[in-house]
Amino acid sequence: MSKVDILDSLNPAQRSAVTASGGPILVLAGPGSGKTRVLTHRIAYLIREKRVEPWRIMAVTFTNKAAREMVHRVNALLDGDPQGMTLGTFHATCVRILRRESESLSRYDNRFLIFDSADQRRVVSQALADLNIDDSRFQPNRMLNNISNAKNEIVSADDYSANNYPTEITKRVYQRYQEILVANNAMDFDDLLMNAVLLFDEHADILERYQRRYEHILVDEFQDTNTVQYELLKRLSAYHENIFVVGDADQSIYRWRGADFRNIRRFGQHFPKSQQILLEQNYRSTQIILDAAKAVIRRNHDRVDKELFTDRKGGELIKLSEAYNEADEATMVVDTIARLEKDGTLAGSCAVMYRTNAQSRVLEEAFIRAGVNYRLVGATRFYSRREIKDLIAFLRLVYSPIDSVSFGRTINTPPRGIGKKTLEVLYDWAEANGWRPGEALLKLVSNDNIQHPFSGRAYSALTRFGNLLHNWIELSAQITVGDLLDSILEGVDYRSYIDDGTDMGRDRWANVMELLGVAIEYEDHDLGQFLEQVALVSDIDNLEDNADAPTLLTLHSAKGLEFPVVFIVGLADGSLPHSRSLEDGEELAEERRLFYVGLTRALDRVFLSYAFRRTSFGESQVTVPSRFLHDIPVELVEGSNLQKRRRVTIEKASSWDWSRSTPKSHESNVDGGGVRKDLPEPSTRAPSQPSQRARVVTEAKYSTGQNVYHQKFGEGVVIESNLTGIDEEVVVAFSDLGIKKLVASLAKLEIREE
DNA sequence: GGATCTCATGTTTTT
DNA sequence: CATGAGATCC
Fold first, then answer.
1. From CA A438, how far away is CA A696, in angstroms rounded?
2. Å from A358 (CA) to C1 (C1')?
3. A674 CB inside 7 Å of strand C
4. Which nucleotide lies closest to A136 by the C1' atom and the CA atom?
5. pTM (global) more than 0.85
6. Region of poorest pLDDT, from A95-99, A425-429, A507-511, A566-570
7. What's the CA angle centered on A95, arms A264 and A234, to 5 degrees?
8. CA A422 – C1' C6 distance (Å)?
9. Integer distance in angstroms from CA A388 to C1' C9?
10. Confidence band (pLDDT; 50, 70, 90) for A748?
11. pLDDT score for A676
12. Which residues of A11-46 are buried (b: 16+ CB within 10 A; e: fewer)?
């Protein structure tokens, strides 16, 4: 392929990005503006035209899928495989560096394992137990969050600043947590990044080697970098300063993971010589879709507006629909897809997006009921399913018997008569001898003369498993991962444990077989590589292109993808924006970006929907249409007047709450779950309500001094009530939890008579 | 001492 | 509703 071909298909902005001479370059790329194109073409351009050797190029992405696609496209451009290029996710790239430099890691060897979030939870619980800390007062998840945040900011356990009791506890837990990881020769996800930075900071010579090597560094989705990642990039690029980053602040949706789109601004400050290139032409969506998306995102503060434009004038209007409940909403989606299909749209070109994985279930059921195939991304993620985790734990234990987390998971799985008491004795015995539990077990079977505290049943159960483990370890050196897994399955008779004949059992066994299939494919890789792959894949990575079925996925996993037809479901306040983000402006802004990301995935058509009633916790509640729907100009939407819809629904919601706080309301939990018979069916519901009811929200329902009860927060007293125009905002002082601000139509507040 | 059951508890997004 | 941890049963 010639130079002309590499640059030919690019617009002027794209071309100037691709051919920009060295130095720091910041490409601000709106959705659908050819971001990946610019990256891949620049790599091809550097290699072909600038004669940069591939091994001197590093390109980082956030998912393996994105990385693979880049490899694929670069290969196509260059008509061959550029050998030796470093192209992968941040995490994978760091692992590679850490393994290669493992001799310089003081506390790890190169067989270190990668602990996922389930492992992390076990470790943190262990840490809490070791420190005699009550895990109900200091929740493991909370602790893990704090630890993760610290690591993202490159703060080690010893540097963690403790200035009050809770932070003191966090510090101790962090320290203990880290000790356990090190004892297991394991790193968590955050360690992979932080340890890479620490390695560079402690070994200037190593850093220099990498700095000199990587003449060009390219970064995708730069808005999603967090502090560690940013610091890593700064270090690696310090010598050549050829750092080329592509990002869009409006698509930053990983704040909760420490990502900070302000890194985009920082980039300009840190590299004053940097060039900035704007990609504003959208090649993906119709004008209508783009206008809607722009109108939504424009309401966020603290952003630089891009003038996105498209040649695809006009287009189909966005369709907004209300369904009665989630099941109806799901059916509506399935029906719509069927109708589109009849008109010639390929089912595979449709995607259904939602805020949380839990929402996929109803959709799946509807698809199954209709006998329509679908592909699902995420949900209960494959590698976090119990049976898969079990088997990975076996493999990990074989690979690294000192891994006590995997040991704990497998020692009595399937149940083989090794209970709490026996384990306690084993742990004590191991500790007294300075062994890890797995080592102790192996000593027990490989050394006949060993002194041990076990007898009878416990001893035979332990040695039976110990022999199995011993065997697998021997085998692992000779046979493939697939055969090893097969041997494990057989050795512990895993099938009869997991497959109990029920549907669920069969599903679980099918998952096992799927894993076995993956393992068999890895034939020529060794066990260590297999485990690493498995630890670093995400579900989106396994999403194959050109499928013929609609895709179900979260808005988060939709980032970077595009579909001709996009459905976004569950557009109700509390779902999108998510209830946990309602009180924080920054988080709310992120929810809005999430919606923006969803909208901008669409090429041709967008279908938005929400359910009038939503089931959460098994209880059905009336919803309020998402506030974001407000911001889409009415003329872009087919059908109804959004404002009116929202108002009407709020009125209804309020009128229902009203009926709930009748004297009977104390038993409302008993029969409150079902559909109330006195309500009209959705199709027959009158478009407007009697004005008496309409006034419910324009008049305060709560007043200062009232005693109220909230299901979760308990007893409280109303301090203040404000009308916001569309709803009532109540400030309540709860006796247990202090002062909270609640939205009347969402919070289930019961008024208690004096 | 171990397995099974029930109860409680708690659900955002992911490398 | 689904998973996890304690209490009870075997």
1. 65
2. 10
3. no
4. B9
5. no
6. A507-511
7. 30
8. 19
9. 31
10. low
11. 28
12. eebbbbbbbbeeebbbbbbbbbbbbbbbbbbbbbbb
Above 90 in pLDDT, residue A663?
no
Proximity of residue A386 CB to strand C below 7 A: yes
* Helix residue spans in A550-664 (DSSP H): 555-558, 585-599, 642-660
Distance A282 CA to C5 C1' (A): 52
Name the one residue in this structure whose structure tokens are 């900071």: A201
Measured CA A387 to C1' C2 distance, in angstroms: 15
Which nucleotide lies closest to A65 by the C1' atom and the CA atom? Answer: B15
Contact A637, A320 (CB under 8 A): yes
A118 strand C contact, CB < 7 Å: yes
Joined tokens for residue A141: 């998840």
Catalytic residue IDs of A: 35-36, 220-221, 251, 601
Distance CA(A145)–CA(A158), nearest Å, equals: 17
Place of tokens 């991304």: A377
Helix (H) or strand (E) holding A226: none
Predicted local distance difference test score (pLDDT) of residue A540: 58
Cite the beta strand spans of A492-639 per DSSP E: 551-554, 563-568, 602-611, 613-616, 619-622, 637-638
Q: At what angle do helices A437-446 and A420-433 cross, to 10 degrees?
A: 90
CA dist A45 and A52 (Å) reads: 9
- Which bases of chain B are contacted by protein, using any atom under 7 A from a CB? 1-4, 10-15
Least confident of A89-103, A544-558, A657-671: A657-671
**Proximity of residue A618 CB to strand C below 7 A:** yes
State the nucleotide closest to A385 in CA–C1' terms.
C3
Q: Is A344 left (phi over 0), alpha (psi -120 to 50) or beta?
A: left
Strands A281-282 and A186-188: unpaired
Which nucleotide's C1' atom has the smallest distance to the CA of A386?
C3
